[in-house]
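@here heads up, posting the sequence + SMILES for the zinc ion run so it's all in one place. Ping me if the SMILES looks off, I pulled it from an old spreadsheet.
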Amino acid sequence: MSDQEKINQFMQKCRDKGLSVTPQRLSIFKALMNDSSHPNPETIYKGIKEENPTISFATVYKALETFEKHGIIKMVTSLHNTVRYDPMLQQHHHIVCAKCKKVIDLVDEDLNQIKIPESITKENQFLDFSIQFNVICSECRARQ
Ligand SMILES: [Zn+2]
Ligand SMILES: [Zn+2]
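bot reply: prediction finished. Complex structure tokens:
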């Protein structure tokens, strides 16, 4: 998908959810849309501060929360106790380095097909799942 298509899709989703597309919200989304590093709010804030000198960290933080609540981006949960955001909405899994906290996307159809245990589906409404693989990445291994 091209950048323009991603932006169009973002604006369409905002309209559908009744969110106004402010220039600040747009630059926050743009900072995230091609970022596969699963950045935290601080990193996103630092990345756009120069272009948006008037933007505050609280604004960035709140906008990300709002996007997440409306399904525009995803939150990577419980990753070393920090909030990390993910622009990829299709089902995928994560390879996480226990040392440098790097998060790598893994799209794998075989993993998507695993059998969901009945103990989960019996009484709950099953939504989706994402597997986290904890590793020590090659860069960190080289440094050991
Ligand atoms: Zn690492
Ligand atoms: Zn991801």
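MO: DSSP finds seven helices and five strands in the chain.
MO: One more: The radius of gyration is 17 Å.
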